[in-house]
Write a structure and sequence with these properties.
heterodimer; A: alpha+beta; Aldehyde Oxidoreductase, domain 4; 3 domains; seven-stranded mixed β-sheet; globular; B: about 150 residues
Amino acid sequence: MDIRTIDRDRRRFLKISAAIAGGLLVGVYLPGCDKAADVLPKKGKTQGHTFAPNAWIRIGRDDTVTLSVHHSEMGQGIMTALPMLVAEELEVDWSQVRTEFAPAAPVYKNPAFKAQMTGGSTSIRTSWEDLRQAGAVARELLIGAAVKTWGVPSSECCAIRGSVVHHSSGRRLSYGELVDRAANLPMPKDVRLKEPSEFKIIGKPMHRLDTSTKVDGSAVFGIDVQMPGLLVATVVHPPVFGAKVMSFDASKAKAVPGVRHVLAIGRGIAVVADTFWQAKKGAEALQVKWGGGKNDDLNSEIIWKHWAELARQKGDVVRNDGNAEEAVVKAAKTLRAVYEVPYQAHATPEPMNCTAHVYKGGCDVWVPTQSQDTTQETAARITGLDYEAVHVHTTFLGGGFGRRIEGDYVAEAVQISKAVKAPVKVIWTREEDIQHDFYRPATYNVFLAGLDSNGWPTAWSHRIVSPAIMDRLIPQFLPSMLPQWIPRPLKNLSAWLAGALVPRFKTDEKATQGAAEMPYAIENVRVEYIKDDPGIPTGFWRSVYHSQNAFAVESFIDEIAASAGSDPYELRRELLRKAPRLRALLDLAADKAGWRQKLPKGIHRGIAVHDYQDTAVAQVAEVSVDPMGKVSVHRVVCAVDCGIVVNPKIVEAQMESAIAFGLTATLKSAVAIRKGRVEQSNFDGFPLLRIDEMPKVEVHIVPSTNPPSGIGETGVPPIAPAITNAVFAATGKRIRKLPIRPDNLRSIS
Amino acid sequence: MLTLRVNGTIHKLEVDPSTPLLWVLREQLGLTGVKFSCGIGECGACTVHVDGKPTLSYVTPVGDVSGKDVTTIERLKGPLSDALRHAWIEEDVPQCGYCQPGQIMSAAALLESKPRPSEADIDAAMSGVLCRCGTYPAIRRAIHRASREV
């Protein structure tokens, strides 16, 4: 039995927090209402009383059960998985569950970031205990209310499907009938959480709760927000990174029918109109002189060349086992290889957008965001308002992948609304979206391996050159991580100081993630990092640095196997002898893929395995390469170990999703820099994977009793190397630059 | 003044006829199920039906559809559409969901012309609608399911 004591001081289980943050205010928080009482239902229009035992649950007298979802739904299924945790312990029927997005409030901060944020595949991992406890506390209060009503011992009562039942008498009261009494009971001291063997919802392929609105067009994404008097704006940004507006002529833009305002904001110029099409026409008619940047001559070749130079020097040592330098000198054979991994755009299907309404004493923001705290901080900084006066309404996200953790488009909406004194929806064009992203950092990797006379690796040296995302993000996130009472000037000062100091630290530990923990048992290992920022904005991109590092590491280990004439699966197996969990996973993938069986003519296999923050994924890809060098991926067998599975159907969907996402970056698209700007601008130059290019995906989940780790990003890292290793098996050509260029694989001219 | 028949209702609109149908649907008629994503006819998120045929509403000037029947996801009705929606729910197809109206509009047109589509038929009919979340295998399953159940 698992008895846990609830810390009575913990904010999240106090009823008061429910009144302020329990979801009561979502969707009804109107301009000018600054007290909870102002927005509670009035005049008996709805039920007079609602039982909200904590920040995640609201039960009405009519038996409706509404669960607050404090993470953003961007496709990863969190709007289904989090309610599953609560519903399991609350003992309600899945069909009874309704959901709503939580507002921005301290109670909803993600412990992984100390800010209300969705990212890093952390949502389930950080909610696993808390949300089950939230459900259990509410259940115990409801049982307590029935016990009081009937005057029977609690041991004779239990909660079943939204009711409390008294066994011997057969009496039953629904949760709705118990809410009034339950609301006045003291919090229970101890609650018992279920053992996995008792789960009725967790571990089952429950249907997603957001599907019905996504198949009839009624789901509201940020871009769909509508309200009376809403103006629509689009923003043009300096095409060259680091440039600014020198001067602009708005006369032609203002002559476009419907255009109301043209104003310089932040980095760019906003055109505000009655409709998006008018704003876009206005933006096209703008005459702008950009200048002042230092990047006019920057291009990708210059960056790679500079990094090749830098990589001749030693870097910051982030791992040093044995003495790799000496072991390489003594080795019978050495292998050297350079891997170049390009910048990548997020290309979320819903372009960046945000709706803001700044008014006297407050600000409402409707936004598809991964970070309610960044949104709130951004709006508070611009308006000078307290956090409490900035109301964040999270919509569905048309893709996130890390892009929507940023606040740049929020800042624009708030600035424009403040200036034009009206609610404003900012919508970027696709071109602005692709060209003004915070890109996955490009990385330059130099490997050196020493092999003994049997081909066995004795030394592994990996030197990485790349920009550091956190140099920009730490200063940006810091103010929302500080306690709320810290005054605005101090918050701003902290961000400024962090901006000045953080880049002076040589190492961004994220940059070597997945490379520093390289799992293979090689006696001498050295991993180094050299930080360099060419001036291209970088940010989190589904799995952060793991996709780049997994591609490099899993390719080079394949090179070692090929050099020794070893089977790439068998060599990995041998080298994973000290990592039994990864080895078992690799075995599962190889076994399910039929690794030792012969393949049809023309089909070749590649394998890769990677651990992303405790979730390990192994993939075997089957590809063919035609004479023109075109790579087709036919089948991917994917084994995943993510601890206890909350919803197996969502895990499968996320593996398919990650594979599709990674395939675009492997086979099709990358961001290149030309004259200081991004060369690509839309899906013609940055094509995404199509349905006819999607392989068959088979997902195998490892049964586990470990607490759940994340799933959203974890399938991305191994796919590129699984594909390129298969291409090597097919053609003998090693892919050391992504994406794969068919020209380099052509067997006929 | 332009006359437009959308979802069975006739609208008389003051609008520049070169305006993309997409923005008239979204901003003037409040039909936000149809989505903006690329603006150049590359991704299919803006797919609606014009006289029953899948049409990219961003690259279709509203003036071109005057007098034609426009149907959006909000009013896609009938046994075939019901079967499609049901299949989409049963297979839990949508992830972020943004492209799904375009996917469903395309799938409906496919099943209308080919009630028992092959894998190649699905590739041909659906490859114009991009899904960044990679719901493609689920879309395939859902189309086959709807085809069986309609």
